[in-house]
Design goal:
186 residues, alpha/beta, Rossmann fold, seven-stranded mixed beta sheet, binds glycinamide ribonucleotide
């Protein structure tokens, strides 16, 4: 049985898709780590029966969360809408075992402050003809680790940022679980 943990800050729709995809397969979502006590992912975790560890900045910076993560000993750490920078100590402790989902075609529209609707607003403002999603390994810098997978979709002149977000979400929900499966079982 492989084990993963998920880090999330927001609604948790990707965490839920991953849980659905791996239901009755040889993969356990051991825990969801959440840095935002208001996040929708907390209620989803409860509904899905996945333990959820809500933490604050002090616990994150002090090494407490790294300590708990090491005790979990996951095969893969999955960032699904997690918005804090990952400390170098985490990257060193889990080399090539941490992946992130980003809602754009990196290296475009990446970096600090580029998350969620900020990305989609920028895509529309810059009149991009396409956008997409990127799944990549995590290093010490925002959105810069080696790319594992990219998927794209057309952006129409009439598309709003919400339209772009919806197109991206369809790709995320389909491909993120599949990429996790390939990384762990191939
Ligand atoms: C996803 O669209 C993901 O690509 C994005 O946050 C959303 C989380 O949605 N991540 C980033 O912007 C990271 N820079 P969810 O909470 O519904 O899974």
């Amino acid at each position: 049985m492989k084990k993963i943990v998920i880090f999330a800050s927001g609604s948790g729709s990707n965490a839920e898709k991953i849980a659905e995809y791996f239901k009755d397969k040889c993969l356990l979502i051991e825990r969801i780590y959440c840095n935002n006590p208001q996040a929708g992912v907390i209620a989803r975790a409860e509904r899905l029966g996945i333990p959820c560890r809500v933490f604050n900045r002090e616990e994150y910076k002090s090494g407490q969360i790294l300590h708990e993560l090491q005790a979990d000993s996951p095969d893969l750490i999955v960032l699904a809408g997690f918005l804090w920078l990952i400390p170098a100590s985490f990257v060193q402790a889990f080399p090539n075992k941490m992946i992130n989902l980003h809602p754009a075609l990196l290296p475009k529209f990446g970096g600090k402050g580029m998350y969620g609707h900020h990305v989609h607003d920028a895509v529309v403002a810059q009149k991009e003809k396409e956008s997409g999603i990127t799944i990549h390994f995590v290093n010490e810098h925002y959105d810069e680790g080696n790319i594992i997978f990219q998927g794209s979709y057309p952006v129409l002149p009439s598309d709003t940022a919400d339209d772009v977000a919806s197109k991206g979400q369809v790709l995320e929900h389909k491909h993120f679980p599949e990429v996790i499966e390939k990384l762990l079982f191939n």
